[in-house]
Amino acid sequence: MGYGSAQASAGNDPAPISHEELTRLRMAIGRLGRVLRQQNDEGLSYALISVLFNVARNQPTTAGDLATSEGVSPPSVTRSLNRLYDLGLISREQDSVDRRTTLIRLTHAGMLERARILRSREVWLSEHLKRLSPEELTALLRAVPALERLGDPER
Length: 155
Prior knowledge:
Blueprint: E1 5-7, E2 14-16, H1 19-37, H2 46-58, H3 63-70, H4 74-86, E3 90-94, E4 102-106, H5 108-129, H6 134-151
Antiparallel strand pairs: 1-2, 3-4
């Protein structure tokens, strides 16, 4: 039974889930995430897009905080930041409180690039949702709150 049972929803009795169902769910979510991340018709690698989106979520931020959040080494995140800076997608400025700290933010071009990537992903998803039956689409939309809870470690 893999994990034995999964919680149907907070406060309810556990609903049994087989190892096969658990594997299928994990693989389907993973595949969909990968496919959506690949919906970038030009330019930035997955690693650069990940850092760009991380900056957008946490700005102003520091290279150290980004490295921790991305789960990569400081030199690795520095290379990504240098590339994003060279492309004009981020800015760096000295922190007025702690002059040893450099704060990183998206530039206007960075915000536009992020929006372009999101639009491209939404276009792909909206086109592919047309392949689902009305019943499948309804079931998928009903699952969104549960998926959001799974993806939010704070919940």
